[in-house]
Design a protein that fits this description.
two-stranded antiparallel ribbon; DNA-binding; alpha+beta; three-stranded mixed β-sheet; homodimer
DNA sequence: GTTGACACAACAACCTTTTTGCAATAATTT
DNA sequence: AAATTATTGCAAAAAGGTTGTTGTGTCAAC
Protein backbone atom coordinates (compact mmCIF):
# COMPACT_ATOMS: atom_id res chain seq x y z
CA UNK A 1 0.00 0.00 0.00
CA UNK A 2 1.47 3.33 -1.06
CA UNK A 3 1.54 6.41 1.11
CA UNK A 4 -1.34 8.14 -0.63
CA UNK A 5 -3.61 5.18 0.02
CA UNK A 6 -2.55 5.00 3.65
CA UNK A 7 -3.52 8.62 4.15
CA UNK A 8 -6.83 8.02 2.41
CA UNK A 9 -7.61 5.03 4.63
CA UNK A 10 -6.68 6.90 7.79
CA UNK A 11 -8.88 9.83 6.81
CA UNK A 12 -11.76 7.48 6.03
CA UNK A 13 -11.45 5.80 9.40
CA UNK A 14 -11.45 9.18 11.11
CA UNK A 15 -14.56 10.15 9.19
CA UNK A 16 -16.20 6.86 10.09
CA UNK A 17 -15.61 7.44 13.80
CA UNK A 18 -17.08 10.91 13.50
CA UNK A 19 -20.16 9.74 11.59
CA UNK A 20 -20.72 6.83 13.93
CA UNK A 21 -20.59 9.12 16.95
CA UNK A 22 -23.07 11.53 15.40
CA UNK A 23 -25.50 8.78 14.48
CA UNK A 24 -24.98 6.80 17.70
CA UNK A 25 -23.62 3.75 15.93
CA UNK A 26 -21.14 1.46 17.63
CA UNK A 27 -17.53 1.36 16.55
CA UNK A 28 -17.11 -2.36 15.97
CA UNK A 29 -14.07 -4.28 14.78
CA UNK A 30 -16.12 -5.51 11.78
CA UNK A 31 -16.99 -2.00 10.60
CA UNK A 32 -13.41 -0.92 10.98
CA UNK A 33 -12.07 -3.93 9.04
CA UNK A 34 -14.62 -3.61 6.23
CA UNK A 35 -14.01 0.09 5.77
CA UNK A 36 -10.27 -0.43 5.89
CA UNK A 37 -10.42 -3.11 3.22
CA UNK A 38 -12.75 -1.15 0.95
CA UNK A 39 -10.75 2.05 1.25
CA UNK A 40 -7.41 0.43 0.59
CA UNK A 41 -8.32 -1.28 -2.67
CA UNK A 42 -8.48 0.32 -6.08
CA UNK A 43 -10.98 -2.05 -7.69
CA UNK A 44 -14.72 -1.87 -7.11
CA UNK A 45 -15.44 -4.95 -5.04
CA UNK A 46 -18.73 -6.74 -4.43
CA UNK A 47 -19.78 -7.51 -0.86
CA UNK A 48 -18.62 -11.07 -1.36
CA UNK A 49 -15.18 -10.03 -2.52
CA UNK A 50 -14.70 -7.97 0.61
CA UNK A 51 -15.95 -10.87 2.69
CA UNK A 52 -13.47 -13.18 0.99
CA UNK A 53 -10.61 -10.79 1.60
CA UNK A 54 -11.06 -10.34 5.34
CA UNK A 55 -13.01 -13.32 6.66
CA UNK A 56 -9.85 -14.94 8.04
CA UNK A 57 -8.56 -11.81 9.69
CA UNK A 58 -11.62 -10.80 11.68
CA UNK A 59 -12.79 -13.34 14.23
CA UNK A 60 -15.73 -15.23 12.68
CA UNK A 61 -16.88 -12.44 10.40
CA UNK A 62 -20.08 -13.34 8.59
CA UNK A 63 -21.21 -12.60 5.09
CA UNK A 64 -24.43 -11.11 6.45
CA UNK A 65 -22.49 -8.50 8.37
CA UNK A 66 -20.54 -7.43 5.32
CA UNK A 67 -23.75 -6.85 3.40
CA UNK A 68 -25.30 -4.97 6.31
CA UNK A 69 -22.27 -2.84 7.09
CA UNK A 70 -21.75 -1.81 3.48
CA UNK A 71 -25.35 -0.67 3.34
CA UNK A 72 -24.78 1.34 6.50
CA UNK A 73 -21.69 2.95 4.98
CA UNK A 74 -23.69 4.05 1.97
CA UNK A 75 -26.28 5.59 4.29
CA UNK A 76 -23.53 7.40 6.19
CA UNK A 77 -21.96 8.69 2.99
CA UNK A 78 -18.75 6.75 3.63
CA UNK A 79 -19.10 4.61 0.52
CA UNK A 80 -21.03 4.49 -2.73
CA UNK A 81 -22.68 1.82 -4.74
CA UNK A 82 -21.55 2.18 -8.30
CA UNK A 83 -23.85 2.15 -11.31
CA UNK A 84 -23.25 -0.84 -13.55
CA UNK A 85 -25.34 -3.14 -15.72
CA UNK A 86 -24.24 -6.17 -13.70
CA UNK A 87 -26.63 -8.11 -11.53
CA UNK A 88 -24.74 -7.41 -8.34
CA UNK A 89 -23.74 -4.44 -6.24
CA UNK A 90 -20.23 -3.04 -6.34
CA UNK A 91 -18.90 -0.59 -3.80
CA UNK A 92 -16.20 2.04 -3.54
CA UNK A 93 -14.88 4.25 -0.77
CA UNK A 94 -14.32 7.30 -2.95
CA UNK A 95 -17.45 9.39 -2.48
CA UNK A 96 -16.14 12.42 -4.32
CA UNK A 97 -17.76 12.96 -7.67
CA UNK A 98 -16.11 10.95 -10.39
CA UNK A 99 -16.94 8.68 -13.29
CA UNK A 100 -16.47 5.14 -14.53
CA UNK A 101 -15.60 3.10 -17.55
CA UNK A 102 -17.07 -0.40 -17.57
CA UNK A 103 -15.79 -3.17 -19.80
CA UNK A 104 -18.56 -4.94 -21.70
CA UNK A 105 -16.54 -8.12 -21.79
CA UNK A 106 -14.85 -8.66 -18.42
CA UNK A 107 -16.93 -6.21 -16.36
CA UNK A 108 -13.84 -4.40 -15.09
CA UNK A 109 -14.52 -0.92 -13.74
CA UNK A 110 -12.02 1.93 -13.98
CA UNK A 111 -12.30 5.33 -12.30
CA UNK A 112 -12.28 8.41 -14.46
CA UNK A 113 -11.52 11.85 -13.03
CA UNK A 114 -12.34 14.82 -15.20
CA UNK A 115 -13.21 18.40 -14.32
CA UNK A 116 -15.23 18.91 -17.47
CA UNK A 117 -17.36 15.86 -16.72
CA UNK A 118 -17.85 17.03 -13.13
CA UNK A 119 -19.40 20.24 -14.37
CA UNK A 120 -21.89 19.17 -17.01
CA UNK A 121 -25.24 20.93 -17.04
CA UNK A 122 -27.83 19.26 -14.89
CA UNK A 123 -31.07 19.27 -16.89
CA UNK A 124 -33.99 20.98 -15.19
CA UNK A 125 -36.67 19.16 -17.12
CA UNK A 126 -40.14 17.95 -16.33
CA UNK A 127 -39.20 14.91 -14.30
CA UNK A 128 -39.28 16.85 -11.02
CA UNK A 129 -36.35 14.87 -9.69
CA UNK A 130 -34.47 16.24 -6.71
CA UNK A 131 -30.99 15.50 -8.06
CA UNK A 132 -28.24 14.96 -5.47
CA UNK A 133 -25.43 13.79 -7.68
CA UNK A 134 -24.54 12.27 -11.02
CA UNK A 135 -21.93 10.09 -12.63
CA UNK A 136 -21.02 9.33 -16.23
CA UNK A 137 -20.72 5.66 -17.18
CA UNK A 138 -18.65 4.86 -20.23
CA UNK A 139 -19.02 1.42 -21.73
CA UNK A 140 -16.69 -0.35 -24.11
CA UNK A 141 -13.71 -2.63 -23.97
CA UNK A 142 -10.83 -2.38 -21.54
CA UNK A 143 -7.24 -2.57 -22.72
CA UNK A 144 -7.03 -6.28 -21.90
CA UNK A 145 -10.18 -7.24 -23.80
CA UNK A 146 -10.04 -4.87 -26.76
CA UNK A 147 -7.65 -7.03 -28.73
CA UNK A 148 -9.02 -10.45 -27.93
CA UNK A 149 -12.71 -9.76 -28.44
CA UNK A 150 -14.34 -9.38 -31.81
CA UNK A 151 -17.28 -7.02 -31.60
CA UNK A 152 -20.62 -8.79 -31.99
CA UNK A 153 -22.66 -5.99 -33.44
CA UNK A 154 -22.24 -2.57 -34.91
CA UNK A 155 -23.42 0.33 -32.78
CA UNK A 156 -27.01 1.43 -33.45
CA UNK A 157 -26.83 4.97 -32.17
CA UNK A 158 -28.85 7.18 -34.41
CA UNK A 159 -31.43 4.61 -35.43
CA UNK A 160 -34.91 3.99 -34.09
CA UNK B 1 -51.01 2.48 -25.77
CA UNK B 2 -50.67 5.80 -27.58
CA UNK B 3 -49.91 6.19 -31.26
CA UNK B 4 -46.26 7.11 -30.78
CA UNK B 5 -45.64 3.95 -28.81
CA UNK B 6 -47.41 1.84 -31.38
CA UNK B 7 -45.15 3.17 -34.11
CA UNK B 8 -42.09 2.55 -31.94
CA UNK B 9 -43.15 -1.05 -31.27
CA UNK B 10 -43.86 -1.72 -34.93
CA UNK B 11 -40.49 -0.31 -35.95
CA UNK B 12 -38.74 -2.40 -33.27
CA UNK B 13 -40.42 -5.54 -34.51
CA UNK B 14 -39.38 -4.76 -38.05
CA UNK B 15 -35.80 -4.23 -36.88
CA UNK B 16 -35.91 -7.49 -34.95
CA UNK B 17 -36.97 -9.42 -38.04
CA UNK B 18 -34.15 -7.85 -39.99
CA UNK B 19 -31.53 -8.56 -37.35
CA UNK B 20 -32.74 -12.09 -36.86
CA UNK B 21 -32.55 -12.77 -40.56
CA UNK B 22 -29.01 -11.41 -40.76
CA UNK B 23 -27.83 -13.45 -37.80
CA UNK B 24 -29.81 -16.54 -38.76
CA UNK B 25 -31.94 -16.51 -35.63
CA UNK B 26 -35.45 -17.92 -35.62
CA UNK B 27 -38.45 -15.66 -35.46
CA UNK B 28 -40.24 -17.23 -32.54
CA UNK B 29 -43.47 -16.25 -30.84
CA UNK B 30 -41.55 -15.83 -27.58
CA UNK B 31 -39.05 -13.37 -29.00
CA UNK B 32 -41.84 -11.40 -30.61
CA UNK B 33 -43.85 -11.27 -27.37
CA UNK B 34 -40.89 -10.26 -25.23
CA UNK B 35 -39.80 -7.51 -27.60
CA UNK B 36 -43.34 -6.27 -27.93
CA UNK B 37 -43.74 -6.07 -24.17
CA UNK B 38 -40.39 -4.40 -23.58
CA UNK B 39 -40.89 -1.86 -26.36
CA UNK B 40 -44.39 -0.90 -25.28
CA UNK B 41 -43.60 -0.07 -21.68
CA UNK B 42 -42.08 3.13 -20.40
CA UNK B 43 -40.54 1.78 -17.23
CA UNK B 44 -37.27 -0.12 -17.12
CA UNK B 45 -38.36 -3.64 -16.30
CA UNK B 46 -36.32 -6.53 -14.95
CA UNK B 47 -36.44 -9.87 -16.73
CA UNK B 48 -38.82 -11.14 -14.07
CA UNK B 49 -41.20 -8.23 -14.53
CA UNK B 50 -41.45 -8.95 -18.24
CA UNK B 51 -41.98 -12.61 -17.48
CA UNK B 52 -44.76 -11.73 -15.05
CA UNK B 53 -46.43 -9.51 -17.63
CA UNK B 54 -46.63 -12.00 -20.48
CA UNK B 55 -46.43 -15.49 -19.01
CA UNK B 56 -50.16 -16.05 -19.35
CA UNK B 57 -50.34 -14.79 -22.92
CA UNK B 58 -47.65 -16.93 -24.49
CA UNK B 59 -48.14 -20.65 -24.32
CA UNK B 60 -46.12 -21.96 -21.37
CA UNK B 61 -43.44 -19.31 -21.58
CA UNK B 62 -40.58 -19.95 -19.18
CA UNK B 63 -38.57 -17.57 -17.06
CA UNK B 64 -35.37 -18.99 -18.51
CA UNK B 65 -36.43 -17.98 -21.99
CA UNK B 66 -37.06 -14.41 -20.97
CA UNK B 67 -33.57 -14.15 -19.50
CA UNK B 68 -31.98 -15.70 -22.57
CA UNK B 69 -33.98 -13.73 -25.11
CA UNK B 70 -33.25 -10.41 -23.39
CA UNK B 71 -29.55 -11.23 -23.48
CA UNK B 72 -29.89 -11.98 -27.19
CA UNK B 73 -31.63 -8.65 -27.76
CA UNK B 74 -28.76 -6.83 -26.09
CA UNK B 75 -26.30 -8.66 -28.36
CA UNK B 76 -28.38 -7.71 -31.40
CA UNK B 77 -28.54 -4.07 -30.34
CA UNK B 78 -32.33 -4.23 -29.96
CA UNK B 79 -32.27 -3.50 -26.23
CA UNK B 80 -29.95 -2.17 -23.56
CA UNK B 81 -29.20 -3.08 -20.01
CA UNK B 82 -29.29 0.07 -17.98
CA UNK B 83 -26.69 1.12 -15.45
CA UNK B 84 -28.08 1.36 -11.96
CA UNK B 85 -26.79 0.73 -8.46
CA UNK B 86 -29.40 -1.99 -7.95
CA UNK B 87 -28.41 -5.61 -7.69
CA UNK B 88 -30.45 -6.66 -10.69
CA UNK B 89 -30.52 -6.11 -14.42
CA UNK B 90 -33.03 -3.73 -15.94
CA UNK B 91 -33.74 -3.46 -19.64
CA UNK B 92 -35.08 -0.94 -22.10
CA UNK B 93 -35.88 -1.00 -25.78
CA UNK B 94 -34.62 2.51 -26.49
CA UNK B 95 -31.07 1.99 -27.72
CA UNK B 96 -30.53 5.58 -28.77
CA UNK B 97 -28.15 7.47 -26.52
CA UNK B 98 -29.93 8.93 -23.54
CA UNK B 99 -29.60 9.28 -19.80
CA UNK B 100 -31.31 8.30 -16.58
CA UNK B 101 -32.36 9.59 -13.21
CA UNK B 102 -32.57 6.95 -10.49
CA UNK B 103 -34.45 7.46 -7.25
CA UNK B 104 -32.38 6.55 -4.19
CA UNK B 105 -35.49 5.65 -2.28
CA UNK B 106 -37.88 3.73 -4.54
CA UNK B 107 -35.40 2.79 -7.30
CA UNK B 108 -37.59 4.30 -10.00
CA UNK B 109 -35.77 5.07 -13.24
CA UNK B 110 -36.70 7.97 -15.52
CA UNK B 111 -35.33 8.66 -19.00
CA UNK B 112 -33.60 11.96 -19.64
CA UNK B 113 -33.09 13.28 -23.16
CA UNK B 114 -30.66 16.13 -23.59
CA UNK B 115 -28.54 17.20 -26.53
CA UNK B 116 -25.91 18.78 -24.33
CA UNK B 117 -25.48 15.59 -22.33
CA UNK B 118 -25.25 13.57 -25.53
CA UNK B 119 -22.26 15.59 -26.63
CA UNK B 120 -20.01 15.74 -23.60
CA UNK B 121 -16.28 15.37 -24.14
CA UNK B 122 -15.12 11.79 -23.99
CA UNK B 123 -11.90 11.79 -21.99
CA UNK B 124 -8.89 10.36 -23.80
CA UNK B 125 -6.94 9.53 -20.69
CA UNK B 126 -4.54 6.79 -19.72
CA UNK B 127 -7.10 4.04 -19.20
CA UNK B 128 -6.77 2.82 -22.81
CA UNK B 129 -10.47 2.02 -22.90
CA UNK B 130 -12.08 1.52 -26.29
CA UNK B 131 -15.23 3.51 -25.50
CA UNK B 132 -18.38 2.56 -27.45
CA UNK B 133 -20.96 4.61 -25.64
CA UNK B 134 -21.78 6.44 -22.43
CA UNK B 135 -24.70 7.46 -20.30
CA UNK B 136 -25.14 9.91 -17.46
CA UNK B 137 -26.81 8.60 -14.30
CA UNK B 138 -28.40 11.15 -12.02
CA UNK B 139 -29.26 10.06 -8.51
CA UNK B 140 -31.61 11.68 -6.08
CA UNK B 141 -35.24 11.55 -5.11
CA UNK B 142 -38.15 11.23 -7.49
CA UNK B 143 -41.17 13.48 -7.20
CA UNK B 144 -43.10 10.88 -5.22
CA UNK B 145 -40.36 10.27 -2.67
CA UNK B 146 -38.91 13.76 -2.26
CA UNK B 147 -41.58 14.91 0.13
CA UNK B 148 -41.96 11.81 2.24
CA UNK B 149 -38.31 10.97 2.77
CA UNK B 150 -36.09 12.88 5.14
CA UNK B 151 -32.53 12.80 3.89
CA UNK B 152 -30.30 10.60 6.03
CA UNK B 153 -27.03 12.33 5.41
CA UNK B 154 -25.66 15.52 4.00
CA UNK B 155 -23.83 15.21 0.72
CA UNK B 156 -20.10 14.74 1.08
CA UNK B 157 -18.99 15.98 -2.29
CA UNK B 158 -15.80 17.95 -1.91
CA UNK B 159 -14.58 16.12 1.19
CA UNK B 160 -12.02 13.36 1.47
C1' DG C 1 -46.88 -28.38 -49.31
C1' DT C 2 -43.47 -31.82 -47.30
C1' DT C 3 -39.28 -32.83 -45.45
C1' DG C 4 -35.11 -32.50 -42.93
C1' DA C 5 -31.43 -29.99 -40.51
C1' DC C 6 -30.82 -27.12 -37.12
C1' DA C 7 -31.93 -23.83 -33.62
C1' DC C 8 -34.83 -22.92 -29.85
C1' DA C 9 -37.80 -23.29 -25.70
C1' DA C 10 -39.53 -25.75 -21.51
C1' DC C 11 -38.56 -27.88 -17.51
C1' DA C 12 -36.18 -28.87 -13.60
C1' DA C 13 -32.33 -28.36 -11.10
C1' DC C 14 -28.86 -25.56 -9.60
C1' DC C 15 -25.89 -21.56 -8.49
C1' DT C 16 -25.15 -16.82 -6.82
C1' DT C 17 -26.43 -12.77 -4.51
C1' DT C 18 -28.98 -10.67 -0.97
C1' DT C 19 -32.27 -10.44 2.96
C1' DT C 20 -34.62 -11.71 7.41
C1' DG C 21 -35.66 -13.39 12.31
C1' DC C 22 -33.76 -14.37 16.42
C1' DA C 23 -30.61 -15.57 20.10
C1' DA C 24 -26.05 -14.44 21.62
C1' DT C 25 -22.61 -10.98 21.95
C1' DA C 26 -20.15 -6.70 22.06
C1' DA C 27 -20.16 -1.63 22.61
C1' DT C 28 -21.61 2.36 24.97
C1' DT C 29 -23.81 4.84 28.95
C1' DT C 30 -24.40 5.62 33.69
C1' DA D 1 -18.91 -2.67 36.65
C1' DA D 2 -23.70 -3.21 35.65
C1' DA D 3 -27.30 -1.84 32.83
C1' DT D 4 -28.77 -0.56 28.37
C1' DT D 5 -28.70 -0.68 23.71
C1' DA D 6 -26.89 -1.70 19.26
C1' DT D 7 -24.82 -5.27 16.48
C1' DT D 8 -23.31 -9.60 15.03
C1' DG D 9 -23.64 -14.63 13.58
C1' DC D 10 -26.23 -18.30 12.23
C1' DA D 11 -29.58 -20.67 9.72
C1' DA D 12 -32.87 -20.34 6.48
C1' DA D 13 -34.86 -18.64 2.57
C1' DA D 14 -35.96 -15.30 -0.82
C1' DA D 15 -34.56 -13.01 -5.10
C1' DG D 16 -32.11 -13.09 -9.19
C1' DG D 17 -29.85 -15.63 -12.74
C1' DT D 18 -27.71 -19.86 -15.17
C1' DT D 19 -27.09 -24.58 -17.17
C1' DG D 20 -28.13 -29.33 -19.38
C1' DT D 21 -31.34 -32.29 -21.60
C1' DT D 22 -34.97 -33.42 -24.37
C1' DG D 23 -38.66 -32.53 -27.22
C1' DT D 24 -40.65 -29.00 -30.41
C1' DG D 25 -40.78 -25.20 -33.77
C1' DT D 26 -38.63 -22.66 -37.51
C1' DC D 27 -36.97 -22.08 -41.98
C1' DA D 28 -35.30 -23.21 -46.29
C1' DA D 29 -34.70 -26.71 -49.97
C1' DC D 30 -37.03 -29.40 -52.51
Amino acid sequence: MDEKTEIFVAEKLRLMKERCRIHKLSLTAQRRAILENLASRKDHPTADQIYGAIQGRVNGLSRTTVYRVLETFVQLGLASKICSPEAKSRFEADTKRHHHAVCNHCEAVVDIYSDSLDNIDIPVDGTCFDIHDFSVSFTGLCSNCRDTVKRVHISDKGEA
